[in-house]
Amino acid sequence: QTRAFQIEVILDNTEGKFKPGMFVRISVVIEKLENVILIPRKAVLILDDQPTVFVVVDSRAASRVVNLGAEVDGYIVVSSGLNPSDTLVTLGQDYLEDDDLVKITAWDENKR
User: Fold this and answer.
1) What is the Cα–Cα distance from 52 to 50, expressed in whole angstroms?
2) Are the C-beta atoms of 70 and 33 separated by less than 8 Å?
3) Rounded to whole angstroms, how far apart are CA atoms 112 and 107?
4) How much is the pLDDT for 101?
5) Lowest mean pLDDT among 29-33, 55-59, 68-72, 80-84
6) What are the angstrom distances between the C-alpha of 84 and each of 27, 35, 78?
């Protein structure tokens, strides 16, 4: 429930940075994914009970059904349905339909 575990580790503490009873946050690599397409989870819509994304083809929206894999920190692996060269819609896809005209603009984080 707390996602806290008591563990025992052996590490180099010659600088004395770590003290008994300290709390730490660690990450454990279970699997290393290479040569995969990783997209923001928020880019995926469920349409007709299928995970779907929108890409831009010749300034038009095109929906693509995708197969999803592992999810890490808000990103998800796409195992099929997308190509690395595709332009993925990550903002406003909730309002798109196939063949809608799309204008690509830069997002300015400072103008929120």
Assistant:
1) 6
2) yes
3) 10
4) 96
5) 29-33
6) 28, 10, 10
